[in-house]
Every structure is written in structure tokens, then in C-alpha cells.
Amino acid sequence: MEYLALILFVLVCLVLMLGYPVAYALAGTALLFASVCALFGAFDMAYLHALPSRLYGIMTNQTLLAVPLFVFMGMMLEKSKVAEHLLAAMSQVFGRFRGGLALSVILVGMLMAASTGIVGATVVTMGLLSLPSMLKRGYHPAFATGSICATGTLGQIIPPSIALVLLGDVLSSAYQQAQLNMGIFSPDSVSVGDLFVGALVPGLMLVGLYLAYVLLSAKLRPHWFESTSEKGVSMQLKPLLKALLPPLVLMLLVLGSILAGLATPTEAAGVGAMGAIVLALFSRQLSLNTLKDVMLGTTKVTSMVFLILIGASVFSLVFRGLGGETLIEDFFTGLPGGTLGAMLLVMLVIFLLGFILDFIEITFVVVPIVGPVLLAMGVDPVWLGIMIAVNLQTSFLTPPFGFALFYLRGVAPSSVRTADMYKGVIPFIVIQLLLLVMLAIWPELVTWLPDTLYS
Questions:
Q1: By 3-state DSSP, what share of the chain in percent is helix, strand and coil, each rounded to 5?
Q2: E strands of 234-285, at which residues?
Q3: What's the pTM?
Q4: Phi (first) and psi of residue 294, to 5 degrees
Q5: 229, 316, 376, 433 from 379: Cα distances, Å
Q6: Is there a contact between 371 and 171 (Cβ–Cβ < 8 Å)?
């Protein structure tokens, strides 16, 4: 009967590939499959009796309350034109150097990622703001589009990332379940704040590697960059500070309060949402129409997240009722290489699924299945969460299915070839894979800061 769970998983992937809405595909396929199996005595419908309590738990989860607040903060910052002002100021500073605009794009993208936490919003915003300027200044289309796509995906790993909020909640449940299965009835916990802290060093390392690649490329391939070096541009600190200070202060309020233990991620998200309103007010971008657009957009994104979570809950109940957990556990424990072999397989599967599923579906469907097994094998939960986040970030860049490529293709001019976009992201994919290898060899890059702050 356990193999029926595998058939269910494959069916769900096929239905998703047909283009049906994720939430309905998860719940509908699972319920239909469960009904057919119940007719043949292969599924006990009593498993679904736990569904009401699960749905109540989702809607009353304080951690998930951070999702609409962070989404609101990101959308309000986008409306207040923070990125536009930052890019203009950064270009003034770095415009004197060959490759200066690319450096500005990466740094502004990092700040946008830390402000919005939404990959699609960052890619589209940076594509609209910087791609025309880069092409006009003589940048090779492959390098320009590759740097924008890679920078946009930083929202996956740099806190406060929506992906880390969702991963933290799922891994918290998986970690407790793994410890209970091991007979530990006073389990340790892992929080969203732990993932935020654990992601800081890898996120900054990734930005540093991006910047180093730009500087190296400007030296080795100067013809890919500005046709002339803008040495006449003066470094004006006042416009830079004016554009840089507001988002920096907001980031310090949000992340600093979490790191200092003064606020939970949900409370910090409330501070961030209020701070974004204040920034929009001071930049004279706040109006009733703007507020209406932001609230409507936040409602749509939040509704999508929670509908997918409800669908994933139905799927996980049916999957468990069909013996899927036992099948996964037996399979992983029988793999050659033990924990290393299991981890490599999970990373490969998540990477491939990233071509067809968004991070929300993978977080709610795949992680609850494999998470408890890996955690029971001794894998650190914070390290596992960051590895999954970086892995998904890499798959979102990988041609031909990378989501970041689709987002940028939608706003890029027709003169930019899709082949150039594919070519441009390859070096950044290599950089991200290098980071994954470094995190695998030295897990302390992830675990050191959380252990130091919370020991």
C-alpha cells in the first residue's frame, strides 16, 4: 500500500504541470485519490478527521501572520520608489568605474531583497529600472540580464525572506515530529528567527561572490561593459545617504529587533509594515489609491499562500494515510552513504522540482515529507533550511524553466534574446552551486551565528 503514496505524489506533479491552480490540484487530487483507494479498502477515511483541527491551526498560527505583514512591507516599499532612488544614487557613486552600474544593481538588489523578501517583485522592479540603462550604456545583454536575474533571487535567502518564514514554520513542525518519533518528549524548537540569523552569513557571502565576479569580468571582458568609463561623475554622498538611510534604518529595525531578541519575526514584520508606510509618506508617494493597491496585492498574495497551505495539509494527511512516511523513511535509511546520500538525493529532487513548482508548493509539500526523516538522521534544522533555500534559489535561475528568467522575460525588451538570458545566468548558477558546496563542507557558516547569539 505504501507505493500508492508514491503514485499520489507523481499524480499531483502531473496535474500541476497541466497548469491547474496549485491549491486545488493538491487538495482535489489527494481527495479524489483517497476516495478511490477507500473504495478498495486501501485508505482509511478516518485520517481526514484531523483536517478541521489542522485548518484551525493554520489560521491561528502566529508565525504565519508575518507573511501578510512582510508582503505589505515589500509592496509598499516598491510603491514608494525606494529602489529607483537607490539605483540613481548608487550609479552616481560607482559610475566612475567600469562595471559600476552592475555593482549598483547588485547592491540595490540586495537591499531590495532584504526589504521585500519577494523574488518576483525584485526581478521585475530591477528589470524595469536598470535593464534599459545597462543596455544603453553598452552592457552585453547576457551579462545585464544574468546579473539582474541573479540579484532578484537574493530575496530567497536574505532575511526577512517570505521563503524563510514559511520554511521556518514547516521545519519547526518537522523537527518536533522527528524528536517525538525518536522518543524525545521535551523536544527542542527551531524558529523563523533562527533561520533569519543562519541566513545572514551565506546571504552576504553570496553578494560578495557576485560583486567579485562583476569586478573580475570587468577586468577580463571590458567589452561587455560600459563603452566608456564615466570618470567625470563625482561622488555625491548627500544624495546617496538620503536614498540609503531610510531602507537601512527600516532593515535595522526589523532584523535588529529579531537578532536582539526584542521582537518575534511577526512583531518585527508589523514594525516593518508600519515603517514602510512612514517611508512612503515622507517620499510623498502615499495616497489612498496607493494604499488600496498595496492592500489588494497583499490580500491576493496572502490568500494564495494560505490556500496552498490548506491544500498541502489535505495532501499530507492522505499521503500519511497511505503509508508514505514509512516508505520515505525506509528508502532513505536504505540509501548508500547514510545521511550524506539521503541529503544529496533530497537536494537533487528539490532542485528538479524547482523547475515546475514554486517555493511555496515545495515548502508545504516536499519539506514535510522529507524533513522529519532527515532531521531524525541528525541533520541540523537551521542548516537544512538554508541549504533548501539556496538550492531553490539556484533552480529558479536554471534554464530553461527558471522562474526568475520568466519574470525578466516578461519585462525585457524584444531586442534581448532569450538565449542571451540563458547564457548570462550560467556563471551565477556556478557561484550559487559553489556556495552550496561551501555550506555543505563547512556547516558552521550557517550554524555559528545562531549558536553564538542564542547560546
A1: 80, 0, 20
A2: none
A3: 0.82
A4: -65, -45
A5: 49, 22, 7, 20
A6: yes
How many C-alpha atoms does 42 have within 13 Å on its Cβ side?
17
Residue 117: left if φ>0, alpha if ψ -120 to 50, beta else—which one?
left
Structure confidence by residue, pLDDT tens digits, 338-373:
788 888 988 988 888 877 777 777 888 888 888 888
CA distance 251 to 196: 12
Q: Per-residue pLDDT averaged across 215-235, rounded?
A: 68
Amino acid sitting at position 237: L
Q: Give burial (CB, 10 Å; 0-12/13-18/19+) of 56.
A: exposed
Tell me, what amino acid is at 88? A
- Average of pLDDT values for 110-118? 69
Query: First and final CA of the chain: distance in angstroms?
Result: 45
DSSP letter assigned to residue 356: T
Tell me, rounded to whole angstroms, the distance of Cα 129 from its chain centroid: 22
Euclidean distance between CA atoms 343 and 330, whole angstroms: 14
Whole-angstrom CA distances from 138 to 90, 124, 214, 224, 226 are: 18, 21, 15, 7, 5
- Whether 11 and 351 have beta carbons less than 8 Å apart is answered as no
C-alpha cell recorded at residue 17: 504541470
To the nearest whole percent, how much of the chain has pLDDT over 70?
A: 93
The pLDDT of 370-392, averaged and rounded, is 89
